Amino acid sequence: MLPNELNDLYKEVILDHYKNPRNSSEIIEPLHKARGYNPFCGDEVNLQLNVDNNQVIQEVGFQGHGCAISQATASLMTESIKGKSIQEALAIREEFRKMMQGEQSNLELLQDLEILEGVRNFPVRIKCSLLSWSTLEDSLS
Ligand code: ZN
Predict the structure, then answer these.
(1) pLDDT tens per residue across span 44-92
(2) CA of 36 to the centre of ligand 1 (A)
(3) Where does residue 72 fall: left (phi above 0), alpha (psi -120 to 50 degrees), or beta otherwise?
(4) Number of domains in the chain
(5) How far is the CA of 96 from the centre of ligand 1 (A)?
(6) CA of 53 to the centre of ligand 1 (A)
(7) What is the pLDDT of residue 8?
(8) What pLDDT is recorded for position 97?
(9) N or C: which end of the chain has fewer CB within 10 A?
(10) Cβ proximity of 6 and 119 under 8 Å
(11) Cβ–Cβ under 8 Å, residues 112 and 96
């Protein structure tokens, strides 16, 4: 299910997020929402966000289905953007994109998301791991 070449510890974390997704309850009537679909793999991510008056993300919810990488990334993403401003969340998205494309990225901003770095060696899977981030961007535009 996951590429064998991924580090075993990272695989374990990815599978844990896949099986026990964080922030998976749906937010009813959110301020921001979007649906993302990756036709290459059949992955789907539905995302809801509530921000406060300072544009800080107070609540985030996602529901979806698809491969382990797409769903684990969505789960990790919700953890990393909760409590951050929209601007900070989009900065994390940009660092994540850079990491996936093999560019120098800010690991301090990425934190736990770094475990997905190995995914970049599997070009087909990069789309899976970028799905939740493009959905985030769609939800805010
Ligand atoms: Zn996928």
Answers:
(1) 999 999 999 999 999 999 999 999 999 999 999 999 999 999 999 999 9
(2) 12
(3) alpha
(4) 1
(5) 17
(6) 35
(7) 79
(8) 97
(9) C
(10) yes
(11) no
- The rounded percent of the chain whose pLDDT value lies above 90 is 88
Q: How far apart are CA 125 and CA 3, in angstroms?
A: 9
- Look up the CATH number of the domain holding residue 129: 3.90.1010.10
CA of 67 to the centre of ligand 1 (A): 4
CB-based contact 30:49 (threshold 8 Å) = yes
Over range 17-23, report the average pLDDT.
97
**Residue-range definition of the domain harbouring residue 27:** 3-140
Residue 124 CA to ligand 1 center (angstroms) comes to: 8
Distances (CA, A) of 139 to 10, 15, 21, 70, 99: 28, 26, 20, 17, 22
Distance 15 CA to ligand 1 centre (A): 13
Please give the distance, rounded to the nearest whole angstrom, from the Cα atom of residue 85 to the centre of ligand 1.
28
Ligand 1 mean position to 51 CA, how many Å? 28
List, in order, residues 6 or more apart from 123 with CB less than 8 Å away: none
The pLDDT of residue 9 = 75
Mean pLDDT of the chain: 94
68 CA to centre of ligand 1 in angstroms? 7
